[in-house]
Design goal:
The chain has 94 residues and is mostly helical. The chain is 43% helix and 0% strand. The protein has 4 helices and no strands. 0% of the residues are buried.
C-alpha cells in the first residue's frame, strides 16, 4: 500500500519549485559540485520579499497600565511637600 503523494514525509523538489512566492522573485536551486561553483551564486539578493514579524501588544498594554496604576496610587496616597524647595533654591543661588 503506497502513501498518497501529499502525505509523503519529505517535500518533493518539484512541489517546492512550483510554489508561487508572495512578492519578490522565486528562489533558485544552487547547482554545482564544487565550492567554487557555489561561491559564484548571489545569495544576498535584494529582490526577495521582505521578512515580516508580528508581536502581540497586550504585554505592553498591561505593563503601561501597571506603571500608570503605580503612579496613580503614589500621587493619591503619598504626600509630597515642596516647602523645602524654596530655601534650597535660595541657598544655591547665594
Amino acid at each position: 500500500m503506497s502513501l498518497l503523494r501529499q502525505f509523503a514525509l519529505a517535500p518533493q523538489e518539484d512541489d517546492l519549485a512550483a510554489l508561487t512566492p508572495k512578492g519578490g522573485k522565486p528562489g533558485r536551486i544552487i547547482e554545482g559540485e564544487k565550492i567554487n561553483d557555489w561561491l559564484q551564486t548571489e545569495v544576498f539578493r535584494h529582490d526577495l520579499a521582505r521578512a515580516t514579524s508580528s508581536q502581540d501588544i497586550w504585554q505592553w498594554l498591561v505593563f503601561a497600565a501597571s506603571v500608570l496604576f503605580f503612579f496613580d496610587v503614589l500621587v493619591r496616597r503619598v504626600v509630597v511637600g515642596f516647602g523645602w524647595a524654596v530655601p534650597a533654591a535660595v541657598a544655591v543661588i547665594h
